[in-house]
Amino acid sequence: MLETSSRLLTLLALLQSRPAWPGSELAERLDVSGRTIRNDIDRLRELGYPIEAVRGPTGYYRMGAGAKLPPLLLDDEEAVAVAIGLRAGRGVAGIEDSAARALTKLEQVLPHRLRRQVTAVHEAVSEGPANTGTNVADPVVDAAVLATVAAAIRDSELLRFEYSAPERTDSAPRRNDASAPFGDWPVLVEPYRLVSWERHWYLVARGTETGQWHTYRVDWISLRMATNRRFTPTPFPGGDYTSFVLRDVATAGWKVHARITVLAPAQDVLARINPAVGVVEAVDESTSVLVTGADSLEIIAVYVGMLGLDFHVTEPPGLVEHVRTLGERYLRAIR
């Protein structure tokens, strides 16, 4: 029979390993009486663990939700997985400090053998630059904003926020709200899904008045007072939130957008890009238009050159200038 302290830890580990345990099964596992199990449950409750009891012939014990986070028992594999995940989390904008604090606490209590495993993985992995596809700094998203938006999605609660979309250098209209001016404006939406892509967070939501679906960058969102108003969810057309975000961002979700005439059939252009991150429009059998965007003109100028196809750029003026600069630079490189 286990000593009391060891038995309590074993009992706690069992309760945290699955949703429900009949008292008789716990007693059998720990080789004690049902009365001892009840006494041990009371001791754990005194230590702050919110253990609930469901009575009756099919009764059971389960770990409930408490007012504060009690100590959590992890097995070896779980502890190593959490530690590795927290190391990766330190590179996610908005939660670096929280992840670092949690990792420090965890590593302080890890047994030596497990700490060596975590350290071995960390030392064996080389991390590339956090930002490899743009010359613009990664946006920082407040973890509290993400949590609030996620809760509104979970509870089907209308979300109100100010949307501070930066001024665009091109003349294309925004699709977030055709009637609203550029800059800050109040938005009231039905939130449905958060999508993380290319170091950015996006909210897929439906307009309460128009019924139209839109994509909003979370780092451009400033939450306003909670609405406490529920809505009845509407099925999303097609059901693929991620593809919708990729398509919507290509045409309206970047700081800079461009329509580039490509001297090639639409199918040839589509074969060279991910169709979800650029919209290709056929003009005729030998010409098409690529609608794409990025957070800077320099990035578009580089990406369009990587198509490997002849193209023509007329707007925005800044993109024309960047393409001209790149062309002259490449010519100088071979003279």
UniProtKB/TrEMBL annotation:
Name of the protein: WYL domain-containing protein
One Pfam family cited in the UniProt record for this chain: HTH_11
GO molecular function: DNA binding; DNA-binding transcription factor activity
Top-level taxonomic group: Bacteria
InterPro entries per the UniProt record, alphabetical: CBASS_pafABC_assoc_protein (IPR051534), DeoR_HTH (IPR001034), HTH_11 (IPR013196), PafC-like (IPR028349), Tscrpt_reg_HTH_DeoR_CS (IPR018356), WCX_dom (IPR057727), WH-like_DNA-bd_sf (IPR036388), WH_DNA-bd_sf (IPR036390)
PROSITE patterns xref list: HTH_DEOR_1, HTH_DEOR_2, WYL
Record flagged with keyword Zinc: no
Record-annotated membrane-spanning stretches: none
PANTHER family on file: PROTEIN PAFB, PTHR34580
Keywords: DNA-binding, Transcription, Transcription regulation
Presence of keyword Zinc: no
Domain (HTH deoR-type): residue spans on this chain: 4-59
